[in-house]
Fold:
Amino acid sequence: MHDHTNITVEHVARVEGHGNIVVNVRSGKVEEVRLEIVESPRFFESMLVGQDADAAPELTARICGICSVGHTTASIKAVEAALKIEPSEQTLLLRRIILAAEILQSHVLHVYFLVAPDVFAAPSVIPLAEKYPEIVKRALRLKKFANRIMTIIGGRHIHPVAMKVGGFSKIPEESEVLEILDLIETATVDVDETVNLFGEIHFPDFRRPSEYIALRKNGSYSFYEGNISSTANQDVDPVRYLDVIRESVKQHSTAKHVHLQAGRDCAFSVGALARYNINGRETLRPRAARAADALNLEQMKDNPFANNFAQVVECVHLVEDIQDLVSELLARGLKDERPPAVGSGHAHGRTRSHGPTRSGVGAVEVPRGTLYHEYEIDGHGHIVRANCIIPTGQNLARMEQDLREMVPGILDLPEDEIRLRCEMLVRAYDPCISCSTHMLDVKFRK
Amino acid sequence: MKRLILGIGNLLKGDDGVGVHVARALKMEEEYLGVDIEDGGTGGLSLIDFFDSYEEILVVDAAGLGLPPGEFRWIAPDMLCARRAWSGHDHGLVDAIRLLEVLPAKKTIRILGVQPAQMESGTTLGPELRAAFSTILAAVRHEAMAVWEEKGAMSHG
Structure:
């Protein structure tokens, strides 16, 4: 037992962004646990103010290179809700497919490149690639499959450009959509192999009761839409999201924390495990349900480390989802639809009459959980207020609480092991603390 | 096979987006320069998919060089170091290049690093980089059309 231990993990490795973990132990008791976010805060909400509403999706696509489709989708849904625009069935199908592809590529990145090095005792994916090249090649193949879908539907695999308010600026050719079906078989084998790989992995047995939140719709495993549902059986229209959650500022973190409205200290979590817990095994596609069984996910639903397994299960589900959605799209026949002009008068060469300010909320499940965009749009089509709540912000309080609850039980372990366990816990949430700066650091050799 | 000019960075973070601004400014000159030009944004490891289709890639990005803002240098890929060893961040350019080294692919990658002044929020470049922008574009145009002799060679901008 460590009587006096101060553990600081500066810049947690293999998470998206900058985060420090601080754990202080005195006389065998945990005095302090903090997850410090040292990334500079992002001010993209204020950047949206004054923008044409139809320009918001493309701008928000730049918030994050991994969740571009997610931010674009939430942004489009917020504008459409405010301006009462109903997308076509074809548009909805295309959005569901591209969203599924983005979640798949993000999960693949996380489980193979960020989590697998821990379980194979490798400092990073590079030595992993040297020792097990087939594993890393499989990951890259799956990522490429998902990226190809994003290119076909979104026009680009990074920061899509074809997704617009009301529809798509370019409808893919039938031959391109058929190409997705051609790639499904290999992707299915690869996700099955991913299940086999993770089936051999054991995560720490750390279980605790927790509140989970995800969008749920008609008993289906939904990503694109649904009501805000929780383990406490709330079922709330996303318009009323602030009745369920609220943001607060913490001194040690430049990112805002989010708690349940029900109580100041009531943390919750979102993400793949939350989706699994809220939707239930029975809503998974058949192959994904078998994957959940193979990974014993049902027995681990109170263990935050199981989020890694839930992501693997979702990979299987998403490939099946993509196959079905693409087949439906082809069966309907692709129509050359164009989105309506919805921007400000200036953007479209006409003047919109001044009308009342309208507001809309767009909620969507993205790789790390539920993402909310809320905009107020004035009569000229300009955004006058924006609020964006990202999944990692919602998970921060729960991550801190998990650290606080887990650390007392592992104080007998060597300090390095405690440090690793803390890092693995944070990584299990797949936090995206920042998606912002990409400045290179350069070391000049002498 | 064509050469690729890939501008990367975050368009919402001021000077960090200089690579994207360069890609956008030169997009109309693709035919004249005889290269493909792409805006890689914050694509991270997904940049590898761009690399697949080209043997020669010229990357433009903001870089902490310790130089006055707006100045730039050609950087050999093996001189890059990830900020927090091999990890952190979102598996960006450094990681994509390292992975190419482990999973061999015949690529020649050159990087033009531009010293930023500020990376506050905003979709435009700051005054220092705006002033230097035409010089940066000229350097990229020159390199785009030049014959590349050896992998990772470094010259000064």
Summary: The CA atoms of residues 351 and 427 of chain A lie 50 Å apart. Chain A touches chain B through 52 residues (CB under 8 Å). Residues 89-119 of chain A form the longest helix (31 residues).
